[in-house]
């Protein structure tokens, strides 16, 4: 099939590459000339495990091409995916200017039947708006479909190639058949393609992310309780997760969820609810708990140093909002840095992928180390903000030797607390007193 993908951000690039991988001919369109030049010459613009290999393969096979011209890019396409940014506006609702702007332009260009697919996470009712924006300039036949993505950064290629499910909001039989044919190779293992109306598909995306965020905030509150009652959240997590109705996944407490999706989607669903006169109380609490959780380690750190961390120096392992990504959007580490620096402390950080992004944001407010152990030099304590695999089984002899004090504040519960005690550490984690 011939496919156009408008927007070569994270979702667009992963989707375009993965559609090419099963033999489709994909043209990706972006207004950013330098990005298109880079991608066309084989330079990948995002870090995502496994993506570069298939990106280069499909580029070489000429199944994947890039252009800045919308007209040229969509000319032969049977399906046009919109993978455009929907940043939160000042009031928390998703800003649709990019999506509707492109829809408007498509109306001027289109000359034959095409299926236009919303891939971006968009508020309920957007498919209708996209339809209207195209119809303002084009009177021929077309269909607008909602097809939300459920890609996790770090495993996006796997999520795309073998999705748990594909959700497609579509009314017309013609578009339904096109979408069924497109996704058939991705659901060979028997996972479902779930067809529904556009509004339900749009809401499914927000409901899925908000539910997962709720699970995390719930566990973070249980962890708070564990710390006060003397229970161990790891045990409680295992105890409840074995119940199929609850499930084992997404029950890990920590210093809050971050990233480009959960914070934005929770906010947007609260806002959409308000717009239709509904007060989504649980989600408001989910958000408030998460905001507080990002700074949960600060009072613990402060208490250890007798409420005076001015002049103290901290080693910080992990900056990305989660492992296997260089993404620092809403990363808890940034909140920790801000709080520590504001209190007069100094910080040296290390992250395997995210340091360039953090440097661009914080400049020389903090120092950066080339690897995990030099990061510890002269530090009064080690703080862990991201659970990169390489932090999981470190050499504690080196850590002991380098740190001024054997003190670790672990925001991701990486280590065994009994082992840490045996090794003589003062060790604080989340929900494990
Ligand atoms: C998420 C959704 O999983 C994906 O389906 C959607 O399309 C985009 O948003 P992503 O943001 O890449 O994906 O990250 P994910 O792996 O889901 O983690 C989100 C956040 O939750 C991270 O900050 C992570 O550290 C945190 N988390 C996750 C926890 O704190 N505890 C858990 O048990 C799981």
Automatic annotation (TrEMBL):
A Pfam family of this chain: UDPG_MGDP_dh_N
SUPFAM superfamilies in the record: 6-phosphogluconate dehydrogenase C-terminal domain-like (SSF48179), NAD(P)-binding Rossmann-fold domains (SSF51735), UDP-glucose/GDP-mannose dehydrogenase C-terminal domain (SSF52413)
This protein's UniProt keywords: NAD, Oxidoreductase
Biological or metabolic pathway of the protein: Nucleotide-sugar biosynthesis; UDP-alpha-D-glucuronate biosynthesis; UDP-alpha-D-glucuronate from UDP-alpha-D-glucose: step 1/1
Domain UDP-glucose/GDP-mannose dehydrogenase C-terminal intervals: 315-417
Family from the record: Belongs to the UDP-glucose/GDP-mannose dehydrogenase family.
PANTHER family noted in UniProt: UDP-GLUCOSE 6-DEHYDROGENASE TUAD
Protein name (record): UDP-glucose 6-dehydrogenase
Organism for this UniProt entry: Parasediminibacterium paludis
């Amino acid at each position: 099939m011939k496919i156009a993908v408008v927007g070569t951000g994270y979702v667009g690039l992963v989707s375009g590459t993965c559609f090419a991988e099963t033999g489709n001919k994909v043209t990706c369109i972006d207004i950013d000339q330098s990005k298109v030049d880079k991608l066309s010459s084989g330079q990948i613009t995002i870090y995502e495990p496994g993506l570069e290999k298939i990106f280069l393969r499909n580029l070489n096979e000429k199944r994947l091409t890039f252009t800045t011209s919308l007209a040229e890019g969509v000319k032969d396409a049977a399906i046009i995916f919109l993978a455009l940014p929907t940043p939160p506006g000042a009031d928390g609702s998703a800003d649709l200017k990019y999506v509707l702007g492109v829809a408007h332009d498509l109306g001027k260009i289109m000359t034959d039947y095409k299926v236009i697919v919303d891939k971006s996470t968009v508020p309920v009712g957007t498919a209708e708006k996209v339809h209207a924006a195209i119809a303002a300039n084009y009177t021929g036949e077309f269909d607008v479909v909602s097809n939300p993505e459920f890609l996790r950064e770090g495993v996006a290629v796997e999520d795309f190639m073998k999705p748990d499910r594909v959700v497609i909001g579509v009314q017309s039989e013609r578009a339904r058949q096109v979408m069924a044919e497109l996704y058939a190779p991705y659901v060979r293992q028997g996972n479902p393609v779930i067809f529904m109306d556009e509004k339900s598909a749009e809401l499914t995306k927000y409901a899925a992310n908000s539910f997962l965020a709720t699970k995390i905030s719930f566990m973070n509150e249980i962890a708070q309780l564990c710390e006060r009652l003397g229970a161990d959240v790891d045990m409680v997590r295992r105890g409840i997760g074995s119940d199929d109705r609850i499930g084992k996944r997404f029950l890990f407490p920590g210093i809050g969820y971050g990233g480009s999706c959960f914070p934005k989607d929770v906010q947007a669903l609260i806002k959409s609810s308000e717009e239709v006169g509904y007060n989504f109380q649980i989600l408001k609490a989910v958000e408030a708990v998460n905001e507080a959780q990002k700074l949960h380690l600060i009072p613990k750190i402060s208490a250890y140093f007798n409420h005076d961390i001015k002049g103290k120096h901290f080693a910080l392992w992990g900056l990305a909002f989660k492992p296997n990504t260089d993404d620092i959007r809403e990363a808890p580490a940034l909140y920790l840095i801000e709080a520590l620096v504001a209190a007069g402390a100094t910080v040296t950080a290390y992250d395997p992928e995210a340091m360039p992004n953090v440097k661009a944001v914080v400049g020389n407010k903090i120092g950066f180390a080339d690897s995990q152990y030099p990061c510890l030099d002269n530090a009064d304590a080690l703080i862990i903000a991201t659970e990169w695999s390489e932090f999981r089984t470190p050499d504690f002899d080196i850590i002991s030797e380098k740190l001024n004090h054997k003190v670790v504040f672990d925001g991701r519960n990486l280590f065994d607390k009994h082992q840490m005690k045996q090794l003589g550490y003062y060790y604080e984690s989340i929900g494990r007193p």
